[in-house]
Specification:
The structure holds 2 protein chains of 2 kinds.
Chain A lengths: L1 H28 L12 H19 L4 H21 L3 H29 L5 H29 L4 H22 L15 H7 L2 H6 L4 H14 L5 H12 L3 H4 L2 H23 L1 H20 L7 H27 L5 H30 L1 H21 L13
Helix pairs in contact in A: 1-3, 1-5, 1-6, 2-3, 2-4, 2-15, 3-4, 3-6, 4-15, 5-12, 5-14, 9-14, 9-15, 9-16, 12-13, 12-14, 13-14, 13-16, 15-16
Chain B lengths: L5 H32 L10 E3 L12 E6 L8 E6 L7 E7 L2 E5 L2 E8 L6 E7 L5 E7 L2 E7 L5 E9 L8 E9 L5 E2 L6 E4 L2 E3 L5 E7 L4 E8 L2 E8 L4 E7 L2 E5 L5 E7 L9 E7 L4 E4 L11 E2 L4 E8 L2 E8 L7 E4 L2 E6 L1
Parallel strand pairs in B: 1-4, 13-18
Antiparallel strand pairs in B: 2-3, 2-27, 3-4, 5-6, 6-7, 7-8, 9-10, 10-11, 11-12, 13-14, 15-16, 16-17, 17-18, 19-20, 20-21, 21-22, 23-24, 24-25, 25-26
Classes of the chains: A mainly alpha, B mainly beta.
């Protein structure tokens, strides 16, 4: 568990180093105007969903979770030096797309590995530790990058090279210290090779949706995703409604990350005790409160902090917890496919929400758009709560 | 997986850490060495000496004030040369700017402030002797700067973005300042946007590249839904009105009748999509200029007939000029220079 957490921590340092300096590199380093309205467009978002499903499915075939994860992390690692060779926006966009493909491929197998390595009753905690380490890496990355630019002015090549070295180290830790998915965990041990392979057909992966508890969870994630306004809109709303000064704007995501980091483990443990679906739903209630604060007429100085704390709490109560819940519902031999399915459903719903929210903002203004999102969230939460989870495996806690 | 003992695995990790650290340290040393080299003058480069730079029109004739990119101790400083001999010795002021513009004795300098962890940026309003009149914190990386012909109004644009994974959502923020009253509009997004007589409400409104007509009116680029528009702004009414589509970084002629802008031309490669065009505001007719390369800059008017702009060069950027009526071809004005202002 700590090994996988370390891999994510190291990898996030690497990727956030690049993310932090990329705008500077494009504008100041290459002298480009990066206003092509996003280097990766909606088409890519669809492709990335397919990649995630493919990664999940490939990993389940013959229990190759680790191999697929290594490939995904490795692909992202080699993209870092390639950024230096790509001198134009389309090429940089292509490299970023490859980088994200690596991320898409590895996410579900990695989460499957976490779920297979942790004892069933402590999966919430395991995912909490993982997400906390992941977020720590994301916070350290920008610091490392700006330290390098401090030592070497305009040293973007040094940032990208060091980022590659860090990513390579992450891959190595994964290869050396993370056990493969067939090393005698209680879940996987009983299924012999031949049986495992035949059970992991594409049909079986699709057939997961016939299982009541998987379908219920996927539907729940999808419904709630439809009412989850994307981060950038939350920050934009904070700025619009509260007049957050421009120079603080870039720091808003740090507030969310800090709360996520602090609460991921405690809320994961809580999920283990009281039930993952409960905490997952509760997380959306917290998001509802955040919407409410943004809509309220209260304009106190503490408001941005409160909204960001609630926003981070929402992530801590939903991100890893959903995967812990998925681990309960999906049998071990299809774990990665099932997780990919649920994550993709959620991502798709959130993407749809972003588009709809942007359109609603244009048509009705920001306040009405958010009010609509809040109402939708309440309805979706009520529907999700009404969805009875299936019988579930023995250790599942009644909801 | 090959069964390795824990000891072996730790040794492999240790070896890899050593190799990777060596690679990282080497590139870091190389990069910092290169950074140091840029502080030494290159043989064959333009002569740059410390000297006075003024934003007041000189009796001796017009001057160009610009950011000097030539390597040496005065790299990135505001420097000036006589407009008639742009290749002559540059007089360097000691004031460092990333972007700069000036008119009628007022200058605006967008500069980096080196912090303990991260650089931040600020806009400094300069008087004619390049002394600081006021400064404002910037929310992102500077890109465009302008001063109104009277020297009263100042505008700038910065890039904000990169807070999502793989940082792909870029936006701009454009501010307008009245240096007489201190009235500060931090973002044109707060203005009412009007298109075909209707109020436009969109979450993705973006503005960049202000050019002033007078102390109340300006033109700029507005983007929404993946398209760009020329807008005419009114500072008192706090509105911007869409004039025309596919116009970026407009620059108004001294007589206020024409706009030279960069136009996204279909069929060009995605990494070099722009051509310079001139738009006659009376007839709304567009004419391509004689520059056939992709220009990503907001041009400045040298006079009523010629515009000056930058293109990527060996030291960052070089300045070129071309006729504003579509005739003739481009001329290289000077190397290693950016953000010129004619005074």
């Amino acid at each position: 568990m700590l090994a996988l957490g370390s891999v994510s921590l190291i990898t996030d340092i690497s990727s956030e180093m690049v993310t932090a300096v990329l705008p500077l590199y494009l504008v100041a380093g290459l002298g480009l105007s990066p206003l092509g309205f996003g280097l990766l467009d909606g088409v890519y978002n669809g492709f990335s969903a397919l990649v995630r499903l493919a990664g999940g499915h490939l990993a389940d075939r013959g229990g190759r979770h680790k191999a697929v994860a290594v490939f995904g992390y490795g692909l992202s690692a080699v993209c870092k030096p390639l950024l230096l060779l790509a001198g134009s926006l389309p090429l940089i966009g292509a490299v970023l797309a490859a980088d994200r493909t690596g991320k898409g491929l590895r996410t579900a197998p990695r989460d499957a590995l976490i779920s297979l390595a942790a004892p069933p009753e402590a999966r919430g905690r395991a995912f909490g530790i993982h997400r906390a380490m992941d977020t720590t890496g994301a916070l350290l990355g920008p610091l490392a990058a700006f330290l390098i630019l401090h030592v070497a002015a305009d040293g973007y090549d040094a940032v990208f090279t060091v980022s590659f070295c860090v990513a390579a180290l992450g891959v190595l830790v994964l290869v050396l210290f993370v056990p493969g998915s067939r090393t005698g965990t209680p879940d996987t041990a009983p299924s012999p090779d031949g049986v495992g392979r035949s059970a992991v057909s594409l049909r079986a992966a699709v057939g997961l949706l016939r299982r009541r508890d998987v379908r219920g969870l996927a539907l729940c994630a999808l419904l709630l995703g439809l009412a989850t306004v994307s981060d950038s809109f939350v920050y934009l709303l904070l700025q619009h409604r509260l007049g957050v000064p421009d120079r603080w704007f870039a720091l808003l995501p740090l507030g969310t990350a800090a709360a996520f980091l602090l609460l991921a483990v405690p809320l994961g443990r809580l999920a283990d005790r009281v039930g993952r679906r409960k905490v997952f739903l509760g997380g959306h209630l917290v998001l509802f409160l955040a919407y409410g604060l943004l809509l309220s007429s209260w304009h106190g100085t503490a408001l941005p902090y409160a909204v960001l704390a609630l926003h981070g709490c929402f992530y801590a109560a939903t991100d890893g917890v959903l995967m812990a819940a998925a681990a309960e519902a999906v049998p071990a031999e299809l774990r990665s496919s099932g997780m990919a399915l649920i994550q993709t459903g959620q991502a798709f719903a959130r993407f749809a929400c972003s588009i709809a929210f942007g359109a609603a903002w244009s048509a009705w203004g920001d306040r009405t758009a958010l009010l609509a999102a809040a109402v939708l969230l309440a309805v979706c939460a009520a529907l999700s709560a009404a969805l009875r989870p299936g019988a579930g495996p023995p250790m599942s806690v009644p909801v | 997986m090959t069964p390795l003992t824990r000891r072996t695995r730790l040794l492999v990790l240790l070896a890899a850490v050593l190799v990777l650290s060596a690679v990282a340290a080497t590139t870091l040393l190389h990069a910092s060495d290169r950074a140091a080299r840029k502080d030494r003058a290159q043989p064959g480069g333009p002569r740059v000496t410390a000297g006075p730079v003024s934003l007041v029109p000189a009796a001796a004739g017009r001057r160009i004030v610009f950011r000097n990119l030539a390597w040496g101790p005065h790299r990135d400083e505001l420097t000036s040369v006589a407009a008639t001999t742009p290749g002559g010795t540059r007089s360097a002021s000691g004031v460092k700017c990333l972007r700069f513009y000036a008119a009628a004795g007022t200058g605006v300098c967008l500069q980096a402030v080196h912090g303990a962890v991260q650089d931040s940026y600020r806009a400094v309003v300069l008087d004619a002797q390049l002394h600081e009149h006021a400064h404002y914190a910037l929310p992102g990386i500077p890109t465009r700067a302008r001063v109104s012909p009277s020297g009263h109004l100042v505008a700038w644009t910065v890039f904000v973005g990169g807070d999502s994974y793989a940082g792909t959502d870029f936006s701009t923020r454009t501010a307008v300042l009245d240096t007489r009253t201190g009235r500060f509009d931090a973002s044109l997004e707060d203005f009412g946007a009007i298109r075909d007589g209707h109020r436009l409400r969109a979450a993705d409104l973006n503005f960049w590249g202000v050019t002033f007509a007078d102390d109340e009116h300006f033109y700029a680029t507005m983007a929404t839904g993946g398209k760009t528009f020329l807008v005419r702004g009114d500072l008192n009414a706090r509105t911007v009105t869409v004039v025309r589509a596919n116009v970026e970084c407009p620059s108004l002629s001294p007589d206020g009748t024409r706009i030279v802008f960069k136009k996204r031309v279909s069929g060009l490669p995605a990494d070099a999509p722009w051509r310079l065009y001139v738009l006659d505001l009376r007839t709304m007719r567009e004419t391509p200029l004689g520059e056939t390369r992709s220009v990503d800059d907001q041009v400045v008017w040298r006079d009523g007939r010629t515009v000056v702009y930058s293109l990527p060069g060996d030291y960052g950027a070089d300045l070129y000029s071309v006729a504003a009526d579509g005739s003739g071809g481009p001329h290289r004005l000077m190397g290693a220079a950016l953000s010129p202002a004619y005074l």
